[in-house]
Design goal:
Belongs to the EF-Ts family. With 281 residues, this protein is an alpha+beta fold. Among the domains are: 47 residues, Helicase, Ruva Protein, domain 3; 94 residues, Elongation factor Ts, dimerisation domain (Tetrahydropterin Synthase, Chain A). It is 45% helix and 17% strand. It has 11 helices and 6 strands. The strands form 2 sheets. A 3-stranded antiparallel sheet has the order 1-2-3.
Amino acid sequence: MSTVQISAADVNKLRQQTGAGMMDCKKALVEANGDFEAAVDLLRKKGQKVSAARSGNATSEGLVSIAVSADGTNGKLVALACETEPVSKVEDFRNLAQAVLAAAVANNPATTEELSAIALEDGRTVAETITELTGKIGEKIVIQEYVNISGEKIVSYIHSNGKMGVLVVFEGANGADITEAGKDVAMQIAAMNPVAVDKDGVDPATIEREIEIAKDVIRQEGKPEEMVEKIAAGKLNKFYKDSTLLNQEFVKDSSLDVRKFLDNTVKGLTVSAFKRVQLGA
């Protein structure tokens, strides 16, 4: 019997992260001795529909800003986060977001740490400016994520709420204008949230986790043990189809997967990398 005390706040946090019912969340947390990731797996194994969302971040609001170079070979994304939506709409906050992005474009920093150390026009660093605005507004402000990505052709997308941005690296365009197709793929990434470009990009730990969950569910369904491996392999292939970009069904034409859509656009066109950033997730 577990001796871990599960609070109502813990239960509510898991419920927000997964979308599962309150009592199911409480039972899962008790069974997992308070381990949230283990509780998520338990809910999945029991057939609960679990969201991939991972909130729990105090700075869940803010603004995502993107700049792509004129030649389309580099993209930069800055996610400036705050605690509440009203602050994200304040002029000082939005001006700061643009100033940080401009500093990134002008100086090409590789990391968030390098970006934070850049001096702005008034001589103060990005970090110092963020600290000052935090004191002025009275709310935590942080650079939640900074992305600096290069390739043959970069296409970007920002969701209408300003809280999600996508950068996609395309290879094989061979000088063709792929702006429209690229935007379609970027929007696909925003909507479908793939875990990798293709099968070989999936983290081995994720694959192992999916296989173990599948096996557990199959056994609970009473399938013969000799069939478990084969059925689990089929479920893993379904995971690849649902969760890796090139194998996903193309949202705008269900008769194609994304790989085929790109190849139809320009022979050999593909995605080599992407980055999807969402505030509050």
